[in-house]
Design brief:
Length: about 250
């Protein structure tokens, strides 16, 4: 049986405190009406107040990044333990925007995923090819390399989520075909079998321009167990529309 789907919102650097709390409350009010698991990942400064707004609704709280160390001289960074302390369940690591803007390597992402495990958080580890890599026919090689380099050994369906986000599909309105997504997700599942003894139960999310209008098609693809949503996660109606279109 496929694992329960997860629809996670990555708010990125958007929404002020009042808007984020209002969105969290709107989602909290609807959580019981959807069959999938919902999660939101607000900007770090708002994780605490969004967590309060979510209350005991069952909508999970996540963050967008963490540092590999548990504490220390790392100005401006946030430890996974601090996020756990605020009630987070999830932390996104290795998003392509962090790989690009902050030069994060697979080794860095691996260390952050280990930090998440240490703190009792579930890492949502992001992988995905650039447009140039896709055009060169290297999609599966690139994604396989990122999975091997970024995913710690021994995590399970309960302690790991992977998000496939083709860089060229993020914020562009463009998406791969359902067949392309199926091919990449099947490959990730296969490679994961060498890294995790529980690969069949690890949720593999698709991310990149997911919206209510394309969610039903993308979420029905084999080995797709939910979505990591950017722009469409900023409006309750759109985010819930995606959740309701997900089997
Ligand atoms: P969009 O849904 O805005 O394309 O962003 C996807 C993403 O990067 C989620 O992490």
């Amino acid at each position: 049986m496929a694992p329960r789907a997860l629809i996670a919102g990555n708010w990125k650097m958007n929404l002020d405190r009042a808007a984020g709390e209002a969105l969290a409350k709107a989602l909290a009010a609807e959580a019981a009406a959807v069959s999938v698991e919902l999660a939101v990942c607000p900007p770090a400064v708002y994780v605490a107040s969004v967590g309060v707004a979510l209350g005991s609704s069952g909508v999970a709280l996540g963050a967008q990044d963490c540092h590999a160390a548990a504490s220390g001289a790392h100005t401006g960074d946030t430890a996974a333990e601090m996020l756990a302390d605020l009630g987070c369940t999830y932390v996104i690591v290795g998003h392509s925007e962090r790989r690009a803007d902050h030069g994060e390597s697979d080794a860095t992402v691996h260390a952050k995923a280990e930090a998440a495990r240490r703190a009792g958080l579930v890492p949502i580890i992001c992988v995905g090819e650039t447009e140039a890599e896709r055009d060169a026919g290297r999609t599966l090689d690139v994604v396989e390399g990122q999975v091997r380099g970024s995913v710690p050994q021994g995590l399970t369906g309960a302690t790991l989520v992977i998000a496939y986000e083709p860089v060229w599909a993020i914020g562009t309105g463009r998406t791969p075909t359902a067949d392309d997504v199926a091919t990449v997700h099947a490959h990730i599942r296969k490679v994961l079998g060498e890294v995790s003894g529980d690969a069949a139960n690890v949720r593999l999310l698709y991310g990149g321009s997911v919206k209510p209008a394309n969610a039903a098609e993308l979420m029905a693809v084999a080995n797709v167990n939910g979505a990591l949503v950017g722009g469409a996660s900023l409006k309750a109606g759109d985010f819930l529309g995606i959740a309701k279109a997900t089997p």
